């Protein structure tokens, strides 16, 4: 058993397995997504580059093997085909490294030019290094794409709401005119994430809501559509941007 070869293969297998797990369920839209005008900043281009690195003709030659016959392959037209091609290229490259006649401690030789004195093992490690950093770039693009698909994080505001002229001080909130319509509307604001927390202060004179909205004008429009605001039972006394440094909610 060649423990040195085993170590190298274990590292290669780890890098590739980690990559392929992270790339599961890659779709065509994500595969083709390019966040900049530079086409190289895309999963499509970088998966193809990894495939080409693994399929280079010199991979066999620099390991002391005869150059394999090369066949032209069409460029993948989708994510599934692209990942299948990359997996096939890795399998072929790995099969070269495990061949009995490949002596990893031997120098690459004159075929490598200035790198001729380097060992074949160092060349295999170079390929693994290429895989590790290119695969990391690809998975970073996946993370960026996932963030792009999420709703943006909106600012949080503290809205202090007081009683309007139509509020009846002799009645509790649930007996005010239009309670059911008000409750239904505010429940909707909670459900869509507009109101994070809210309720009356202990003396009942004011209500404080923590509200997420693109800006103060949007917040005032959303709260202003509450039937109690339109009916004069409530009014917005003040709004202020709130920076949440602490949040114990799950």
Task: Please provide a written account of the structure.
This protein has two domains: 3-149, dinb family like domain (Four Helix Bundle (Hemerythrin (Met), subunit A), Up-down Bundle), CATH 1.20.120.450; 156-242, 2-Layer Sandwich (Alpha-Beta Plaits), CATH 3.30.70.1060. It is rod-shaped. The protein is built from nine helices and four strands. It has helices spanning 3-22, 28-32, 43-54, 58-61, 79-97, 120-149, 179-191, 216-224, 227-230; strands spanning 156-163, 195-200, 206-212, 234-242. Helix 1 runs antiparallel to helix 5 (79-97), helix 3 runs parallel beside helix 5 and helix 3 (43-54) packs antiparallel against helix 6. A hairpin with a 5-residue loop joins strand 2 and strand 3. It has 250 residues and is an alpha+beta fold.
Annotation keywords:
2 domains, alpha+beta, 250 residues, 46% helix, 9 helices, Four Helix Bundle (Hemerythrin (Met), subunit A)
Architecture blueprint of SSEs:
Blueprint: H1 3-22, H2 28-32, H3 43-54, H4 58-61, H5 79-97, H6 120-149, E1 156-163, H7 179-191, E2 195-200, E3 206-212, H8 216-224, H9 227-230, E4 234-242
Helix pairs in contact: 1-5, 1-6, 3-5, 3-6
Give the CATH class of the largest domain. Answer: Mainly Alpha
Helix segment tally: 9
List low-confidence stretches: none
Oligomeric state as shown: single chain
Helix content: 40-55%
Which CATH-level-2 architecture of the largest domain?
Up-down Bundle
Please sum up the structure shown.
It contains nine helices and four strands, in the order ααααααβαββααβ. The protein has 250 residues and is of the alpha+beta class.
């Amino acid at each position: 058993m060649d423990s040195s070869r085993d170590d190298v293969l274990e590292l290669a297998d780890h890098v590739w397995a980690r990559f392929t797990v992270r790339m599961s369920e890659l779709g065509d839209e994500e595969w083709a997504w390019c966040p900049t005008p530079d086409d190289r900043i895309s999963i499509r281009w970088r998966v193809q580059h990894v495939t080409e690195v693994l399929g280079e003709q010199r991979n066999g030659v620099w390991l002391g093997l005869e150059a394999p016959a090369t066949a032209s392959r069409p460029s993948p037209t989708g994510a599934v085909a692209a990942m299948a091609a990359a997996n096939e290229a890795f399998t072929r490259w790995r099969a070269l490294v495990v061949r009995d006649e490949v002596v990893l401690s031997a120098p690459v030789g004159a075929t490598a030019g200035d790198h001729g004195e380097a060992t074949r093992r160092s060349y295999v490690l170079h390929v693994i290094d290429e895989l590790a950093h290119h695969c990391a770039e690809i998975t970073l693009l996946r993370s960026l794409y996932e963030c792009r698909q999420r709703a943006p994080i909106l600012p949080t505001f503290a809205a202090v709401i007081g009683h309007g002229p139509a509020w009846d001080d002799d009645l509790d909130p649930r007996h005010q005119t239009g309670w059911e319509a008000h409750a239904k509307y505010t429940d909707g604001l909670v459900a869509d994430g507009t109101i994070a927390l809210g309720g009356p202060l202990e003396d009942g004179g004011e209500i404080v809501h923590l509200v997420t909205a693109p800006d103060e004008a949007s917040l005032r429009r959303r709260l202003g559509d509450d039937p109690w605001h339109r009916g004069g039972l409530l009014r917005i006394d003040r709004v202020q941007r709130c920076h949440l440094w602490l949040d114990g909610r799950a």
